[in-house]
């Protein structure tokens, strides 16, 4: 089985899109997500770029237990695997960023003279907003942008309780907005120009409004049961259906795939979009 290996810390959504770009069978991502480093584990992604289904992960767990108990694990030194072409280093950032240029008016954002403060929370998202929006009139200011898997002094989850520094920096810099991504950058938290935290429920409603009103797009909206009911009102105004699922994006993604949904969202700050992939992307 051919394996592409990222040579550096890479955001989960970048790897998820890489599955689609390389037509891979899936991915394994070593991460503690928004949890402390001691929680380090792995995420399994499907061939669609979305999280593996509960049935798939149950099957994996069964095989792991069986293999550890009854079989010898075959191993191959990395240098030998590289020499044989079984493993290939692949930086997915250029592939991902090029894809985003087709979805978003990046030139317009670069020339908008915005001041944006970004807090990657010492995680894998460091540098991505500068790569996307740098080299223009818009200014990107990063804090907590050194890669540090111990996440010193913070919990890498973009919720109000963890974003006091981001809020203070937005106010001090007179910035337009503050953006925070969690440890593996598949979730986002937003601070407005006054230093106030926007709840994920507000952000999801605003994203839906943007797609429906500004971009004049139409399609199914998928939300978890704990996500805002504001989208039902938007569904009525713009005559689009809204579907509700159990908690967890793993329940949102299958509906997005099956029905080509416009957007899917959950209460923890994870959002996926049609034309991109049926998975959370904090970038």
TrEMBL record:
Protein's GO biological process? carbohydrate metabolic process; purine ribonucleoside salvage
Any signal peptide, and if so, which residues?
Answer: none
Annotated protein name in UniProt: Alpha-D-phosphohexomutase alpha/beta/alpha domain-containing protein
The UniProt record lists the keyword Magnesium? yes
GO MF annotation, one = magnesium ion binding
Q: Provide the species name.
A: marine sediment metagenome
Task: Supply the Pfam families for this chain.
Answer: PGM_PMM_I, PGM_PMM_II, PGM_PMM_III
Give the UniProt keywords, A-Z: Isomerase, Magnesium, Metal-binding, Phosphoprotein
Q: Which residues form the Alpha-D-phosphohexomutase alpha/beta/alpha domain?
A: 1-66, 96-195, 202-283
Its cofactor is:
Mg(2+)
Return the similarity comment: Belongs to the phosphohexose mutase family.
């Amino acid at each position: 089985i051919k394996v592409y290996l990222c040579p550096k810390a890479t955001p989960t959504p970048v790897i998820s899109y890489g599955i689609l770009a390389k037509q891979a069978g899936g991915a394994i991502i070593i991460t503690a997500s928004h949890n402390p480093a001691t929680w380090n584990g792995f995420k399994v992604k499907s061939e669609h770029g979305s999280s593996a289904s509960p049935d798939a992960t149950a099957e994996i767990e069964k095989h792991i237990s069986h293999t550890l108990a009854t079989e010898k694990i075959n191993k191959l030194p990395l240098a030998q695997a590289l020499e044989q072409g079984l493993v290939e280093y692949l930086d997915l950032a250029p592939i991902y960023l090029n894809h985003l240029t087709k979805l978003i008016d990046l030139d317009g954002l670069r020339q908008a003279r915005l001041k944006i403060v970004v807090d990657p929370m010492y995680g894998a998202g460091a540098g991505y907003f500068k790569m996307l929006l740098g080299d223009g009139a818009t200014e990107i200011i990063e804090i907590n942008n050194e890669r540090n898997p111990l996440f010193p002094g913070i919990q890498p989850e973009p919720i109000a309780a963890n974003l006091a520094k981001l809020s203070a920096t937005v106010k001090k810099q007179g910035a337009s907005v503050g953006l925070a991504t969690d440890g593996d950058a598949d979730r986002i938290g937003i601070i407005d120009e006054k230093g106030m935290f926007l709840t994920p429920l507000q952000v999801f409603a605003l994203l839906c409004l943007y797609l429906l009103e500004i971009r004049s797009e139409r399609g199914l909206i998928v939300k978890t049961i704990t996500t805002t009911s504001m989208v039902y009102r938007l569904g009525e105004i713009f005559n689009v259906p809204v579907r509700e699922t159990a908690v967890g994006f793993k329940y949102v993604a299958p509906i997005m795939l099956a029905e080509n949904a416009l957007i899917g969202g959950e209460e923890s700050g994870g959002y996926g979009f049609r034309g991109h992939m049926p998975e959370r992307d904090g970038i």
